[in-house]
Amino acid sequence: MEPKRIVRRYWDKRSQTYDENGYKSHNATQNFWKSILKNAVRTDENLKILDVGTGTGFLSLLFAEMEHSVTGIDLSKGMLEKARHNAGKLDLTVDFIHGDAENLPFEDETFDIVINRHLLWTIPNPRIAVDEWSRVVKSGGKIMLIDGKWYDSSIDMRLRRFIGKIIVSITEKRNPRMFMSHYARIKSQFPFFNGSAPNDVIDIFAEAGLKNISVDNLEKLKRFENKNRSLSYKISNKPSLFLALGEK
Prior knowledge:
The chain has helices at residues 3-14, 26-41, 58-65, 77-89, 126-136, 155-171, 178-183, 198-207, 219-228, 231-236, and strands at residues 48-52, 69-74, 95-98, 111-117, 137-149, 211-216, 240-247. By secondary structure, it is α/β, with parallel strands linked by helices. It has one domain: Rossmann fold (3-Layer(aba) Sandwich), CATH 3.40.50.150.
Protein backbone atom coordinates (compact mmCIF):
# COMPACT_ATOMS: atom_id res chain seq x y z
CA MET A 1 0.00 0.00 0.00
CA GLU A 2 1.22 3.51 -0.81
CA PRO A 3 2.88 5.13 2.26
CA LYS A 4 0.64 8.19 2.19
CA ARG A 5 -2.49 6.06 2.28
CA ILE A 6 -1.18 4.35 5.41
CA VAL A 7 -0.23 7.70 6.94
CA ARG A 8 -3.67 9.10 6.20
CA ARG A 9 -5.36 6.02 7.67
CA TYR A 10 -3.31 6.25 10.89
CA TRP A 11 -3.97 9.95 11.47
CA ASP A 12 -7.67 9.56 10.69
CA LYS A 13 -7.81 7.06 13.58
CA ARG A 14 -5.47 9.05 15.81
CA SER A 15 -7.50 12.25 15.40
CA GLN A 16 -10.05 11.01 17.91
CA THR A 17 -7.57 11.04 20.82
CA TYR A 18 -4.74 13.31 19.62
CA ASP A 19 -5.59 16.38 21.72
CA GLU A 20 -5.93 14.30 24.89
CA ASN A 21 -2.13 14.19 25.18
CA GLY A 22 -1.86 17.97 25.05
CA TYR A 23 -0.80 20.62 27.54
CA LYS A 24 -1.99 21.05 31.13
CA SER A 25 -2.93 24.73 30.85
CA HIS A 26 -4.61 26.05 27.69
CA ASN A 27 -4.05 29.73 28.50
CA ALA A 28 -0.40 29.33 29.49
CA THR A 29 0.25 27.32 26.33
CA GLN A 30 -1.47 29.87 24.09
CA ASN A 31 0.51 32.76 25.55
CA PHE A 32 3.82 30.91 25.43
CA TRP A 33 3.46 29.77 21.82
CA LYS A 34 2.22 33.17 20.66
CA SER A 35 5.40 34.73 22.02
CA ILE A 36 7.47 32.25 19.98
CA LEU A 37 5.50 32.93 16.79
CA LYS A 38 5.48 36.71 17.22
CA ASN A 39 9.24 36.69 17.69
CA ALA A 40 9.67 34.70 14.47
CA VAL A 41 7.16 36.70 12.39
CA ARG A 42 8.39 40.11 13.59
CA THR A 43 5.53 42.19 12.23
CA ASP A 44 2.12 43.38 13.36
CA GLU A 45 0.74 43.33 9.81
CA ASN A 46 -2.06 40.99 8.85
CA LEU A 47 -0.39 38.15 6.96
CA LYS A 48 -1.58 35.28 4.78
CA ILE A 49 -0.30 32.15 6.50
CA LEU A 50 -0.32 28.52 5.38
CA ASP A 51 -0.03 25.86 8.09
CA VAL A 52 1.11 22.66 6.36
CA GLY A 53 0.22 19.46 8.19
CA THR A 54 -2.09 21.45 10.43
CA GLY A 55 -3.40 18.39 12.28
CA THR A 56 -6.01 19.50 14.80
CA GLY A 57 -5.14 23.12 14.04
CA PHE A 58 -2.71 24.00 16.83
CA LEU A 59 -0.66 26.60 14.93
CA SER A 60 -3.53 27.68 12.68
CA LEU A 61 -5.68 28.64 15.65
CA LEU A 62 -2.84 30.55 17.31
CA PHE A 63 -2.26 32.62 14.19
CA ALA A 64 -6.00 33.18 13.76
CA GLU A 65 -6.18 34.49 17.33
CA MET A 66 -3.34 36.84 16.38
CA GLU A 67 -5.65 38.14 13.60
CA HIS A 68 -3.80 36.72 10.60
CA SER A 69 -5.55 35.16 7.59
CA VAL A 70 -4.86 31.44 7.97
CA THR A 71 -5.19 28.38 5.77
CA GLY A 72 -4.49 24.94 7.22
CA ILE A 73 -3.91 21.88 5.04
CA ASP A 74 -3.62 18.24 6.04
CA LEU A 75 -3.61 14.78 4.47
CA SER A 76 -6.00 13.43 7.11
CA LYS A 77 -9.67 14.30 6.85
CA GLY A 78 -10.13 13.11 10.42
CA MET A 79 -7.62 15.62 11.73
CA LEU A 80 -9.23 18.38 9.66
CA GLU A 81 -12.63 17.56 11.10
CA LYS A 82 -11.18 17.92 14.59
CA ALA A 83 -9.45 21.17 13.58
CA ARG A 84 -12.74 22.64 12.35
CA HIS A 85 -14.39 21.59 15.59
CA ASN A 86 -11.63 23.29 17.60
CA ALA A 87 -11.95 26.47 15.53
CA GLY A 88 -15.71 26.49 16.07
CA LYS A 89 -15.33 26.23 19.84
CA LEU A 90 -13.09 29.31 19.79
CA ASP A 91 -15.23 31.15 17.23
CA LEU A 92 -12.23 31.49 14.91
CA THR A 93 -12.17 31.51 11.11
CA VAL A 94 -9.59 29.28 9.44
CA ASP A 95 -9.80 27.81 5.94
CA PHE A 96 -9.05 24.12 6.49
CA ILE A 97 -8.31 22.21 3.26
CA HIS A 98 -7.63 18.56 2.50
CA GLY A 99 -4.37 18.18 0.57
CA ASP A 100 -0.80 16.94 0.26
CA ALA A 101 2.20 18.79 1.71
CA GLU A 102 4.25 17.75 -1.33
CA ASN A 103 1.69 18.92 -3.88
CA LEU A 104 -0.11 22.03 -2.68
CA PRO A 105 -3.31 23.20 -4.43
CA PHE A 106 -2.30 26.88 -4.48
CA GLU A 107 -0.97 29.35 -7.02
CA ASP A 108 2.64 30.56 -6.91
CA GLU A 109 3.43 33.27 -4.35
CA THR A 110 0.12 33.05 -2.49
CA PHE A 111 1.26 33.26 1.14
CA ASP A 112 3.46 35.50 3.28
CA ILE A 113 4.46 32.60 5.54
CA VAL A 114 4.40 28.82 5.27
CA ILE A 115 4.83 27.06 8.60
CA ASN A 116 4.70 23.53 9.92
CA ARG A 117 5.25 21.82 13.25
CA HIS A 118 6.46 18.24 13.75
CA LEU A 119 5.75 17.32 10.13
CA LEU A 120 9.07 16.58 8.45
CA TRP A 121 9.39 13.07 9.92
CA THR A 122 6.28 11.81 8.13
CA ILE A 123 7.02 13.19 4.64
CA PRO A 124 8.47 10.78 2.03
CA ASN A 125 10.18 13.52 -0.01
CA PRO A 126 11.26 16.41 2.27
CA ARG A 127 13.19 18.24 -0.47
CA ILE A 128 10.22 18.16 -2.83
CA ALA A 129 8.01 19.40 0.01
CA VAL A 130 10.26 22.37 0.84
CA ASP A 131 10.48 23.29 -2.85
CA GLU A 132 6.68 23.26 -2.95
CA TRP A 133 6.40 25.41 0.17
CA SER A 134 8.86 27.86 -1.34
CA ARG A 135 6.81 27.97 -4.54
CA VAL A 136 3.68 29.20 -2.76
CA VAL A 137 5.51 31.80 -0.63
CA LYS A 138 5.69 35.37 -1.89
CA SER A 139 9.06 36.92 -2.70
CA GLY A 140 10.39 38.15 0.63
CA GLY A 141 8.16 35.72 2.51
CA LYS A 142 9.26 33.12 5.04
CA ILE A 143 9.22 29.38 5.58
CA MET A 144 9.17 28.40 9.25
CA LEU A 145 9.73 24.81 10.34
CA ILE A 146 9.52 23.51 13.91
CA ASP A 147 11.11 20.10 14.28
CA GLY A 148 13.48 18.02 16.38
CA LYS A 149 15.00 14.64 17.14
CA TRP A 150 12.27 12.23 18.21
CA TYR A 151 13.96 8.87 18.69
CA ASP A 152 16.68 8.05 21.19
CA SER A 153 17.80 4.39 21.03
CA SER A 154 19.49 4.37 24.46
CA ILE A 155 18.41 1.71 26.96
CA ASP A 156 17.16 4.41 29.32
CA MET A 157 14.84 5.93 26.69
CA ARG A 158 13.62 2.52 25.53
CA LEU A 159 12.57 1.76 29.11
CA ARG A 160 10.94 5.18 29.45
CA ARG A 161 8.97 4.69 26.22
CA PHE A 162 7.78 1.28 27.46
CA ILE A 163 6.54 2.82 30.72
CA GLY A 164 4.97 5.68 28.76
CA LYS A 165 3.00 3.21 26.63
CA ILE A 166 1.59 1.57 29.74
CA ILE A 167 0.48 4.97 31.08
CA VAL A 168 -1.09 5.87 27.72
CA SER A 169 -3.11 2.65 27.63
CA ILE A 170 -4.44 3.37 31.14
CA THR A 171 -4.97 7.15 31.14
CA GLU A 172 -5.90 7.79 27.49
CA LYS A 173 -7.77 4.55 26.79
CA ARG A 174 -5.97 4.02 23.47
CA ASN A 175 -3.71 1.35 22.06
CA PRO A 176 -0.11 2.69 22.02
CA ARG A 177 0.84 -0.07 19.57
CA MET A 178 -1.38 1.43 16.87
CA PHE A 179 1.40 3.78 15.75
CA MET A 180 3.93 1.09 14.85
CA SER A 181 1.25 -1.21 13.47
CA HIS A 182 0.90 1.41 10.73
CA TYR A 183 4.38 2.89 10.42
CA ALA A 184 6.54 -0.25 10.88
CA ARG A 185 6.05 -1.28 7.24
CA ILE A 186 6.77 2.14 5.77
CA LYS A 187 9.15 3.96 8.13
CA SER A 188 12.17 3.28 5.91
CA GLN A 189 10.52 5.44 3.25
CA PHE A 190 10.68 8.56 5.45
CA PRO A 191 14.20 10.07 5.53
CA PHE A 192 13.57 11.88 8.83
CA PHE A 193 11.45 9.26 10.57
CA ASN A 194 13.60 9.50 13.71
CA GLY A 195 13.66 13.29 13.54
CA SER A 196 15.90 15.94 12.05
CA ALA A 197 18.78 18.12 13.18
CA PRO A 198 19.17 21.84 12.39
CA ASN A 199 21.88 21.16 9.80
CA ASP A 200 19.54 18.79 7.94
CA VAL A 201 16.97 21.55 7.54
CA ILE A 202 19.55 24.22 6.75
CA ASP A 203 20.79 22.07 3.86
CA ILE A 204 17.29 21.53 2.48
CA PHE A 205 16.43 25.21 2.80
CA ALA A 206 19.63 26.19 1.01
CA GLU A 207 18.94 23.72 -1.82
CA ALA A 208 15.49 25.29 -2.20
CA GLY A 209 17.13 28.66 -2.72
CA LEU A 210 16.07 30.17 0.59
CA LYS A 211 18.29 32.84 2.14
CA ASN A 212 18.95 34.43 5.53
CA ILE A 213 18.50 30.98 7.07
CA SER A 214 18.52 30.93 10.86
CA VAL A 215 17.88 28.43 13.67
CA ASP A 216 16.47 28.98 17.15
CA ASN A 217 17.13 26.03 19.48
CA LEU A 218 13.99 26.83 21.50
CA GLU A 219 15.57 26.17 24.88
CA LYS A 220 12.68 27.87 26.70
CA LEU A 221 10.20 25.70 24.81
CA LYS A 222 11.99 22.52 25.90
CA ARG A 223 11.63 23.57 29.54
CA PHE A 224 8.00 24.51 28.98
CA GLU A 225 7.27 21.15 27.34
CA ASN A 226 8.85 19.20 30.20
CA LYS A 227 6.82 21.16 32.74
CA ASN A 228 3.44 21.36 31.03
CA ARG A 229 2.92 18.16 29.03
CA SER A 230 1.18 14.99 30.22
CA LEU A 231 2.99 12.40 32.34
CA SER A 232 3.17 9.88 29.49
CA TYR A 233 4.71 12.52 27.19
CA LYS A 234 7.32 13.58 29.74
CA ILE A 235 8.36 10.01 30.44
CA SER A 236 8.48 8.92 26.78
CA ASN A 237 10.11 11.99 25.26
CA LYS A 238 13.34 13.92 25.65
CA PRO A 239 12.63 16.76 23.22
CA SER A 240 15.38 18.28 21.10
CA LEU A 241 13.42 21.03 19.38
CA PHE A 242 14.34 23.87 17.06
CA LEU A 243 12.75 26.43 14.76
CA ALA A 244 14.35 26.93 11.34
CA LEU A 245 13.51 30.00 9.32
CA GLY A 246 14.36 30.80 5.71
CA GLU A 247 13.40 33.71 3.45
CA LYS A 248 12.51 33.49 -0.23
